[in-house]
Amino acid sequence: MTRRVAVTGIGVISALGRSRGEFWDALKSARCGIGPMTLVPAGSVRFENGAEVPDYRAADYFEEKEAAMLDRFAQFALIAAREAVADSGIAFDDALGEASAVVTGSCLGGKTTEDEGFRGLYELKSTRFPPLSIPKAMANAGASRISLEYGIRGPVYTISTACSSANHAIGQAFWMVRGGVVEAAIAGGSEAPFSLGVLKAWEAMRVVSPDTCRPFSKDRRGLILGEGAAMLVLESLERARARGARVYGEIAGFGMSSDAFHLTQPLAAGAARAMRAALYDARIEGPAIGYVNAHGTGTPANDPAEVEAIRAVCGDRVLVSSTKSMHGHALGAAGAIEAAATLLALDNELIPPTANFTEADPACNLDVVPNIARTAAVEWALSNSFAFGGLNAALVFRRL
To answer: CB–CB of 338/323 below 8 Å?
Structure first.
């Protein structure tokens, strides 16, 4: 059994806002969500800026007891899932709950909870951890809570492949729906990296920008960390049309690869393998792709390697942008947030820009849609995620 797979619901919480609508409004107006970090003491790390969810209060979404049981990253996962399910209008009754899946991605899991626990142990000399420390910190906490909320009793699991986590999650959910293993799925990713221990570890890597994220720009100085979540509702196109659901677009292909090269340095050939695998899965050729939502971290090493891969696979006439320039690099959630951006771009026939762009780099010689969104009726799009460890994942989307 092979079925076409539609996306009928999108939920997003990110530095660009706490809903899908706010997210899209920011993208199309090139509004940047990067600013001074507030979740750690000022001056505690060398870099000052991050892409935090604005004005977030757990009490706006959860009863006090429920909030206390969920790490910040899991709260984001559930918030995004609630928006996606409501947007889709799907009803998980007993039969559909039995035949549905939840697949999420997270690079870090509940690091906020872990950081608080270890601070209590090592700094405050506390000898007792809160009793819910383990279930709050586990990486599958978001997926499990979504399953509980909607009575989803099919496959429920979390993938952790660093910055490719969400693309791997969406891709595997897509394959399950396409192959008839499940009837529907909630898939995406969530992340909350703004705790002191995590930020000190990123500080040591020296890849975080001291000011902002400028993907593909000659004066780029590194990535900016972000947080948040995005979730998609996936179901067969036939089922979606039968129930009169709104369809944002189709997931048509998924590909993945490993560089087997270096833990942190990107390899253009490895990225290209994942992109070609996704195209093969979608049964299309590279020149058919009209838009690539790039991994586009803004680091000196990633951007030219990715441009090399894109040119090799899609040619030099494709539109490319990195929305990380606005919502930051949300690590394991990045692919999901960018999948949402790609689907909204196709649906609205508007390509979000690469913000903060100042100067062209000859090593990144593609049309990177600098600073201003561009009207374009694109049929096929590719969304890339490349991770430390050399793990690559690419998704192909189609406008319907």
So the answer is: yes
**141: Cβ contacts below 8 Å, ≥ 6 apart:** 70, 71, 73, 74, 77, 109, 110, 135
Q: What's the CA gap between 209 and 224, in Å, rounded?
A: 6
- Cα separation, 372 vs 385, in Å, equals 23
7-242, CATH topology level: Peroxisomal Thiolase; Chain A, domain 1 (3.40.47)
Q: What is the largest CA-CA distance in the chain?
A: 61
Per-residue pLDDT tens, the chain, 400 aa: give them. 689 999 999 999 999 999 999 999 999 999 999 999 999 999 999 999 999 999 999 999 999 999 999 999 999 999 999 999 999 999 999 999 999 999 999 999 999 999 999 999 999 999 889 999 999 999 999 999 999 999 999 999 999 999 999 999 999 999 999 999 999 999 999 999 999 999 999 999 999 999 999 999 999 999 999 999 999 999 999 999 999 999 999 999 999 999 999 999 999 999 999 999 999 999 999 999 999 999 999 999 999 999 999 999 999 999 999 999 999 999 999 999 999 999 999 999 999 999 999 999 999 999 999 999 999 999 999 999 999 999 999 999 999 9
329 labelled catalytic = yes
Q: What is the Cα–Cα distance from 9 to 267, expressed in whole angstroms?
A: 34
End-to-end Cα, the chain, rounded Å: 22
Residue of 107, 213, 314, 329 marked active site: 329
Could you tell me where in the chain the CATH 3.40.47.10 domains are found?
7-242, 253-398
Structure tokens at 54: 């604005």
d(CA 155, CA 218): 45
CATH superfamily label, 253-398: Thiolase/Chalcone synthase (3.40.47.10)
Q: Look up the pTM and report it.
A: 0.98
Separation CA 192–CA 202 (nearest Å):
14
Of the candidates 32, 107, 213, 295, the residue annotated as catalytic is 295
Annotated catalytic residue 295: yes
Known catalytic residue: 327?
no
**Catalytic: which of 163, 213, 314, 364?**
163
267 three-class SS: coil
**With the CA atoms of 247, 248, 249 and 250 taken in that order, what torsion angle do they form, in degrees rounded to the nearest 10?**
-60
